[in-house]
Write a structure and sequence with these properties.
The structure holds two protein chains of two kinds. Chain A is an all-alpha fold. Chain A contains 13 helices and four strands. A two-stranded antiparallel ribbon of chain A has the order 1-4. Chain A has a two-stranded antiparallel ribbon with strand order 2-3. Chain A is globular and about 60 Å long. Chain B starts with 7 loop residues before the first strand and ends in a 9-residue tail after the last helix. Chain B folds into two domains: 234 residues, P-loop containing nucleotide triphosphate hydrolases (Rossmann fold); 236 residues, 3-Layer(aba) Sandwich (Rossmann fold). In chain B, 44% of the residues are buried. Chain B has a six-stranded mixed beta sheet with strand order 6-7-8-3-9-10, sandwiched between helices. A six-stranded mixed beta sheet of chain B has the order 16-19-20-13-21-22, with helices on both faces. A four-stranded antiparallel beta sheet of chain B has the order 2-1-4-5, with helices on one face. The longest helix of chain B has 16 residues. Chains A and B meet through α8 and α9 of A and α10, α11 and β18 of B.
């Protein structure tokens, strides 16, 4: 009698143990990115206590804001099953244009004019990828180069500077603070909240997931696939224009190559957040986490005394690790089962 | 059967997944030279069992014996090396390579310096192909072959190893009758060579035609093994689903309403020509024909996915032009497409979001999607269609085929269409869900829906339809009422043979 009871309680304990193991596994798989983030912050803080100081955190988030704003838009594009590699050179374009127009027509008109021109570029890409169904990798890789050429043509290859750097209110977007918080951080946070709600709560957001998850099934459900993809590129371009505005406002002068290479960092942040490059998954919240991780890692490396160019190598390592762990979590093994 | 030792014996196999006991003590044996059917509804555990056998899953209990030896399948390659060969429903061939290259992929014969020995390769391949009696040779590009012939390539691949047991998983799903008989000849040959065969299929007529014994699974539990000669469809079905099924012809008739959909002289290039028919409210019209007869293309035209080259479409007597699925939906046409996973569902999305996808624009609470209304719709159709899922948050990809199909049907019913088109509504679905879906289609008609059913399964068409449109090569050959139709005249009509009765 007691023996059976003993067995029964053993069995129960066994079941509980397996359950918790599985629960831990599922928590790890779902929240892995947050856990990695926490572990990493603790490690860096131990290495250098300055890492978590208010000043340093603000400085990291502020310097990540430009990248972050761009990553928000690219998240829509990636979830819709496409890529956008043109955001870096498009950001250079926005920055140069708004700086140039600032002195010519004044900031009040320069900002909407720059937004209009950048959105035209986004609309063009959206037309090629959405309506003509061209491969987004090829289209945006081509646009990366074409927009760079466009920027140089516009500027004549010259750096662009605002004449009166002290006397313009234009610097508020990049250098101002409100309630003690830097404005770039506020813009990033506000846009993240807005776009997060659009993606998670609106019919349009639902369509983006459907088109990226299974475009054919979305079409068979009456969703206008081309229009949805087109809109994603418009959103991406609007985010790029905002990033260009912050960049221009922060420096009040710029080279033609200011956004060069950012497309890869943006993509790294989005993937790091867990959006699948196949489309159909990802969230704005995860992208924000991805942006912060990337920012803190780069900052941490600097605090450790490494040269800034090490970050280019580290960014690559992070992309590969993120993609690998994502696939490993899906198949439940680190190595390919058929290797 | 001279040798009484089974080639393969599964003993008390147990496999559990989080929250599910997928296999619960499954045991059966396959004798040499036996065709052994494995049957069960979707989700009964057939696939899991085959994955255990193929080394993809490790069992949590029980053992696999081959001959007298207990074996452990550490992986798919080991299973193949031990002589267990799988012929899958979904083909895994490289289309750009030749037949020979596909068959010997990974083990191409070599000459010095790693060069491929093409002569030996062709010779060996042609020897196998000759045995299979197929009409193509080693150098044919696989992409140029029909699906049936591609399946033959898979089978040829199986024959390159010394197979002890061959598992066929729904091999006839995409085959024509002529191709099926070739496949059955091949199975008979394997059988005569003493190979043990496990044959998985939902199609009863095949099971009773070619198998020797039938083992049945239900909810992961082994229900028993019966000799095919000693049983019948009804008994097997009862073991599979625990109740009996109504497999009779459609007998019920109800009042027909007005003509909801009329098509006059509709053509679409070479796909179909001069098609005319009408569907009344309260009526189920079945479209029967061979694959490629143009039925799906008609449905796609009505749903705005193709532009007709000639002819008219009338809805409630009014001529309409339909340019996109969105147009079709706005006019009250719904299409349950042929390819559930490719066209019907976003597998990574949850059940609720899939179901409300076509109307997500209309379910608004301010600027947002009204989640409450969505859940209400999901709950309503989950109950009405008896969809079995842990909850609306479940990803559709995790559901069984039958439940996935019900999600697609629910999605379109919730649009309250005037015309409901269903294309191959029960493809790859187990008998239990099948009869539920048939019953549902009849009920929908009784409620006043105009229903078009496209199917390649004759029992299905006969069972659900009030009238049957028989198509051959892009043309309507004849339209039958359910009184006129017989299996013979239906087969004649879809084979392009004009019968004397035809107008």
């Amino acid at each position: 009698m007691t023996e059976t009871k003993q067995n029964a309680s053993d069995l129960r304990e066994g079941i509980m143990a397996t359950l918790t193991k599985q629960q831990i596994g599922s928590v790890l798989a779902k929240q892995g990115i947050l856990i990695a983030f926490a572990v990493f912050i603790i490690a860096f803080t131990i290495a250098n206590p300055k890492f978590l100081s208010v000043d340093n955190v603000f400085s990291v988030v502020r310097s990540s804001a430009i990248l972050g704003v761009m990553a928000l838009g690219v998240t829509f594009v990636v979830i819709s099953g496409n890529l956008d590699l043109s955001v870096g050179s498009m950001m250079s374009f926005s920055t140069i244009v708004v700086l140039d127009l600032h002195d010519k027509i004044g900031p009040f008109l320069a900002i909407p004019a720059m937004f209009g021109m950048t959105l035209c570029l986004g609309a063009f890409i959206g037309f090629l990828v959405g309506y003509l169904r061209l491969n987004s990798l090829i289209v945006t890789l081509g646009m990366l180069s074409a927009i760079h050429g466009l920027t140089l043509t516009y500027s004549g290859g010259q750096n662009m500077d605002i004449a009166d750097k002290e006397g313009t209110w234009f610097s508020v977007f990049g250098q101002g603070t409100a309630l003690g918080i830097p404005v770039p951080i506020l813009i990033f946070a506000a846009l993240a909240a807005l776009l997060g709600i659009v993606l998670a709560k609106t019919a349009f957001g639902r369509k983006v997931y459907a088109v990226g998850g299974n475009g054919t099934a979305a079409t068979f459900s009456g969703i206008k696939r081309a229009r949805t993809v087109f809109t994603c590129y418009i959103i991406s371009a609007a985010c790029v224009a905002t990033a260009g505005l912050i960049q221009a406002s922060r420096s009040l002068g710029s080279q033609n190559t200011v956004g060069q290479g950012l497309e890869l960092e943006v993509l790294a942040a989005v993937i790091l957040g867990g959006a699948s490059l196949l489309g159909g998954s990802g969230t704005i919240f995860k992208t924000v986490i991805g942006v912060l991780i990337l920012g803190f890692i780069q900052n941490g490396l600097l605090l450790l005394g490494l040269q800034f160019y090490v970050q280019f190598i580290v960014t690559w390592v992070i992309i590969i690790l993120a993609v690998w762990l994502d696939i490993a979590a899906k198949r439940g093994k680190l190595l390919s089962p058929i290797a | 059967m001279t040798d009484a030792k089974p080639v393969l014996h599964l003993d008390d196999i147990v496999k559990t997944f989080p929250g599910v006991r997928a296999l619960d003590g499954v045991s059966f044996s396959v004798m040499p030279g036996e065709v052994h059917a494995l049957m069960g509804e979707n989700g009964a555990g057939k696939s899991t069992l085959m994955k255990v056998l193929g080394g993809i899953y490790q069992p949590d209990g029980g053992a696999i014996y081959m001959g007298d030896h207990k074996v452990v399948m550490a992986g798919p390659l080991e299973a193949k090396a031990k002589g267990i060969v799988f012929i899958h429903q979904e083909l895994s061939l490289a289309e750009e390579l030749t037949v020979a290259e596909n068959i010997y992929l990974g083990e191409l014969p070599r000459k010095s310096f790693g060069r491929v020995d093409w002569a030996t390769l062709a010779e060996r391949t042609n020897a196998i192909l000759k045995k299979l009696n197929v009409g193509f040779d080693a150098k044919t590009r696989v992409g140029d072959l029909s699906i049936a012939n591609q399946q033959m390539v898979e089978i040829a691949r199986a024959l390159t190893v010394d197979a002890k047991a061959v598992i066929f998983d729904e091999p006839t799903a995409s085959l024509t009758d002529a191709e099926k008989s070739v496949l059955f000849d091949v199975i008979a040959d394997l059988k005569s060579e003493g190979v043990g065969i496990i044959y998985i299929s939902h199609r009863m007529e095949e099971i009773f035609k070619i198998t020797d014994r039938i083992s049945i699974l239900r909810d992961g539990q082994y229900q028993g093994t019966v000799a095919t000669a000693d049983t019948d469809e009804e008994a097997v079905t009862q073991m599979m689903i625990g109740r009996t099924l109504d497999l009779s012809r459609n007998a019920s008739h109800h009042e027909l309403g007005d003509v909801a959909l009329e098509v006059r002289g509709l053509s679409c290039g070479k796909l179909y020509q001069d098609v005319s028919f009408e569907v009344r409210r309260g009526e189920v019209v079945g479209f029967y024909g061979l694959v490629g007869a143009g039925r799906t293309e008609i449905a796609e035209t009505l749903f705005g996915l193709r532009d007709p080259s000639a002819g008219k479409i009338l809805l409630d007597g009014e001529e309409v032009r339909i340019h996109s699925p969105a147009d079709a939906i706005a006019r009250g046409i719904s299409l349950v497409p042929e390819d559930r996973k490719g066209q019907g569902l976003v597998l990574g999305m949850n059940c609720r979001d899939n179901m409300t996808l076509p109307q997500v624009d209309d379910l608004k609470a301010g600027p947002f999607v009204a989640e409450g209304a969505e859940i209400a719709i999901f709950d309503q159709y989950r109950d009405r269609l008896d969809i079995r899922t842990p909850g609306w948050k479940q990803q559709v990809g995790n559901l069984s085929g039958g439940n996935q199909q019900k999600i697609v049907i629910g999605k379109w019913l919730s649009m309250h269409p005037n015309v409901l088109i269903v294309d191959e509504p029960t493809r790859g679905i187990d008998v239990g869900s099948k009869s539920e879906i048939h019953k549902l289609l009849r009920e929908l008609a009784a409620q006043g829906y105009a229903v078009m059913v496209i199917s390649s399964e004759m029992p299905e068409v006969l069972h659900v339809s009030d009238r049957i449109v028989a198509m051959y090569s892009g043309r309507i050959m004849r339209t039958f009422t359910s009184e006129e139709v017989s299996e013979d005249n239906l087969i004649q009509a879809i084979s392009g043979i004009k019968s004397n009765e035809a107008a």
